[in-house]
Each structure stands twice: as structure tokens, then as C-alpha cells.
Please model this.
Amino acid sequence: MPIDTYQYQIPLHQQNMKQTDEFAPGYYPHASFEVTQQVDLSARGIEEQATPESVRDGLIDLYDDRSNLNYLQNEATEPVRRSEVSPIAENKYADEPTEEEKMHKIVEQMPLLEQTKMIISTGSFIVNIVRTDALEMSRIER
Amino acid sequence: MSVLQKTLSLLTGKPVAPAQRPLKGLSERQLIELESEIGRQLFGPIPAGHRRDFFCLDESTWVWHEEWIDEETGKKRSSTTRYEAHENGVLKAQDGLNYRFIEGEELTNLAVAVRLYYEQVMRGVYKRDPITGHKLTDTPPATI
Model:
């Protein structure tokens, strides 16, 4: 059976940047996406049945998404600093848990009620960012 | 996509080429309508004669709107429910009723709906991977 694959792209600012410590305000890194690799999307996503367990998993995913999408908000308000995205900076303290690991720990220890509330607020937060980004890109292209 | 395009796609086995820049020129209201086309399907079949909308209004508000014709009076009825995410809970505001924080099954169902909405809108409307946030390309890569 053919694998359902799509190409996905990594924004320039998430690649290993060496030339500058921060982007100038108004710079749109996603305007210079480069195709870098393929991923299998068929193994995850919208087909799965929603259960309380998947809701908990979804919250962790949403936290990750929120981190991944922060650049959309940052680019509109402030430059993205290299220290926030550089793999070198992230691995500076190899023995310590990463921010992602810390967040997973916090979410796992949250009561289900708190997790559920967080899903709703985080979901709307991200949808709003992506919608705003689409509007902004549309405005620039016009 | 038209029925003809779908039929041709089924017969030839070739996917229909997506329109270029489908979101270009759309207003926020139009984007929300596109999102709501997905949102209204998350809660199962819509009763005959009903119109339903479910969408994310802004960064803290979800809206459920339902319209139908009252069989007894023949008049148009509607109901709008707003869910607002606050730090201390999710507030429900419904026409003419008191505000209250939702809990239990209603809260869980809303969270499930929000997650499904998010995942499907990210893929279906904004062509982004809901996990990474990266844009999906329109055409799949060549395979051997």
C-alpha cells in the first residue's frame, strides 16, 4: 500500500542560523521556506477516535504546537532571538530536561479538569494565530 | 470541487489539482465561515431544517449557533451559545440564561470538539500540519 506522504517545510528561523543573532522586525521567515524532508502523516491526526486519553495526549500536542507556532506571533511583534531557536542553545545543558520535557511533566501531573480547560484555551489561541497569519499573508500578497 | 471533478478523479485515479492560493483575498469572516463548515460537522448529523455553525471567534471564544424552523409556529428560531476560555474555567453564555462555568461531560465534549476542530481546520483550511504547524505542500512528492 502506498504511504500517504506529504512534504513539509521547516521555517528558516528553525534551521541552524549562524549569520545573525536576531531577525530584523518585519522579517517573515516563512516566506523563504525550504523543502527539507518527508513525513508520514497517515499514522496520526484526525482519524483517531477522541477519548479522555486522547484528549490528554492532545493537550501535550497542543502545547508543542503552541511552541512551534510562537514564531507566527513573534514575527508580528518582536524579532525571534537566536537563543530561542538555536539547537546549540537548546543542547547547552544536556543533563537537564528540555523545556518540552518539563512541559510534558507538568501536563501529565495536571488534573483532567485543568487539562481540558487548557485544551480549549490553547486550541483557540493557535487557531487565532494561524488565521491572523493567513490574513496577513493575503494582505501582503495583494 | 465539483461533482464532475470528483468523478473524473475517481475514474482516472489522478487527484484533482488544488486551486492556487485558495485563501488569497478572503476576509476574516470568510475564513471563519470556511472553518465553520468543518466545525458544524463535529457534532454528528444536523437535523433536517436546522442550520448549525461552530467556530472559533477569537483567541478565547468559541461559538455554537443553531437555527431551525419551529414546527408548531412555523417561525424561525435560533440559539447562540458562547464559550469563553478564562483562566479559572470555561464560561458558557447562552441567550437569556445566566453565565456559568461548564464542567463534567460538557467540558470534556467541548475539549474534544476543539481538538478535532483544530486538527481538521489546520489541515483542511490552512494546509498546515497540526503537529508541527508547518505548511503542507499542495502536491505530494514523487515516489518510485
